[in-house]
Amino acid sequence: MHWTEYFGPLAEGAWVTVQLTVYSTILGAILAFASGIGKLSSNWAIKAVSVAYIEVFRGTSLLVQLFWLYFALPLAGMALGIDLRLPPVMAGVLALGLNIGAYGAEVVRGAIQSVHKDQHEAARALNFTSRQTLWTITIPQAIPEMMPSFGNLAVQNLKDTALVSLISLGDLTFRAEQIRNFTQDSTTIYSMLLVAYFGMALVLTALMRGLEAYVSRWRMAGS
Amino acid sequence: MLFGFEWDLSSPLAFALSILPILLTGLLVTLQATVVGFALALVLGLVWAVLKAAPSRIISWPVSVVIEFIRDTPLLVQLFFLYYVLPEYGIVLPAFMTGALALGIQYSAYTAEVYRAGLQAIGADQREAARALNLSSARTFTHIIVPQAIPRIVPAMGNYLVSIMKDVPVLSVVTVLEMLNVAKIVGDRTFDYLIPLSLVGALYLITTLVASAGVRLVDTWLPKEGIPLK
């Protein structure tokens, strides 16, 4: 097998990696906003759930979470009499999304808290409800603050997708492992794999920079 | 049986208690890998930071690319690379050392940034004052810059220590018997993954909470004005 023939299977794997990254980043962003805002909630139940989620998923290892969802959850389901067997794709997206969402939650919380107190007072003086203040005053100004950290987390998430190869999901790393088992050509295949991830990370960084430039117009004028 | 400890399958609680010593043996390996990996990351990161600050762009530019490359590629792939490629060039390391080396290399890209930011945070006025007092640039660095940079660097490094600990399970793919790998083996042999993997999660949660509290404690102990290098 000539090294140029590696491109086909690697491209197939890369496509799976891209899809995993996109889905889990979207899931992570939703969870990050939900629990980041939830952590600041005055409702203690919402706050407790948010804090518990963030602490559990930040406090344990991603690979432990992935293995738990894939190997342990079906057994928990069996004990409860429900079928909780997840296909590898579901387990992968869930673990990655839940993990990155917990890290993103702290970014969301920090950015919301960084919005100046005057803004809240002004909104209140203008008779905005607290919901309106949150969605139309605080969050639009907080989002530009979140973007640099979200860019780092997106790259982190892309790198973390490599772990799903360990639950036999056919991503980029999994395909490379298959080729290595077949050809034993470790140096070439792993060099190509590293370069592929580096290239994908550079593209993702550029995309996140673009998004950052787009949302920066929501920044308060003069700040 | 694993590491000389029998498991007791009579009840879930008995099973959990009987495998706890096995998992703690694995936790010890996890902590060892964390410490060795962290030490390597601290040293290698300092090398990167110094080279990146070199006045010549012939040195600093390639180093920046290398740091970016390390930071943007997955730990798992770097680990596979080291584990399968190094032996082809006659470098045969035990799995544990290969794993610790991979952790050290991956996190050196992050620690390099911490060193750089910490050193840059010491303002130009400090350098000017040192110059006005006729201190040599070497003395300025060791007696003025570094002592003030340490309190800024230590908390960030502590956070990476905790991150390294959470990345150690990746080493299970090259047969390192850390906690997750041990739990997986127990699961493979008893067909019960739920209890071993849940216990691993709980032990991780406890360990990272203790480690984070330790980092915060060190942070409050550190004098904010700096630590003299004596």
TrEMBL record, chain A:
GO terms for molecular function: transmembrane transporter activity. Gene3D superfamilies: MetI-like. It is found in: Cell inner membrane; Cell membrane. InterPro entries: AA_ABC_transptr_permease_3TM, ArtM/GltK/GlnP/TcyL/YhdX-like, Ectoine_EhuC, MetI-like, MetI-like_sf. One of its GO terms (biological process) is amino acid transport. It is a multi-pass membrane protein. Residues 14-208 form the ABC transmembrane type-1 domain. Keywords: Amino-acid transport, Cell membrane, Membrane, Transmembrane, Transmembrane helix, Transport. Its main location: membrane. The keyword Chloroplast does not apply. GO terms for cellular component: ATP-binding cassette (ABC) transporter complex. The chain crosses the membrane at residues 20-41, 189-211. Belongs to the binding-protein-dependent transport system permease family. HisMQ subfamily. NCBIfam families: ectoine_ehuC, HEQRo_perm_3TM. This is Ectoine/hydroxyectoine ABC transporter permease subunit EhuC. It comes from Devosia oryzisoli. The lineage of its organism: Bacteria, Pseudomonadati, Pseudomonadota, Alphaproteobacteria, Hyphomicrobiales. The gene is ehuC.
TrEMBL record, chain B:
GO terms for biological process: amino acid transport. It comes from the Bacteria. Keywords: Amino-acid transport, Cell membrane, Membrane, Transmembrane, Transmembrane helix, Transport. One of its GO terms (cellular component) is ATP-binding cassette (ABC) transporter complex. The keyword ATP-binding does not apply. The chain crosses the membrane at residues 20-51, 91-110, 193-215. Residues 27-212 form the ABC transmembrane type-1 domain. It is a multi-pass membrane protein. It is found in: Cell inner membrane; Cell membrane. Its main location: membrane. Pfam families: BPD_transp_1 (PF00528). CDD domains: TM_PBP2. One of its GO terms (molecular function) is transmembrane transporter activity. Belongs to the binding-protein-dependent transport system permease family. HisMQ subfamily. This is Ectoine/hydroxyectoine ABC transporter permease subunit EhuD. It comes from Devosia oryzisoli. The lineage of its organism: Bacteria, Pseudomonadati, Pseudomonadota, Alphaproteobacteria, Hyphomicrobiales. The gene is ehuD.
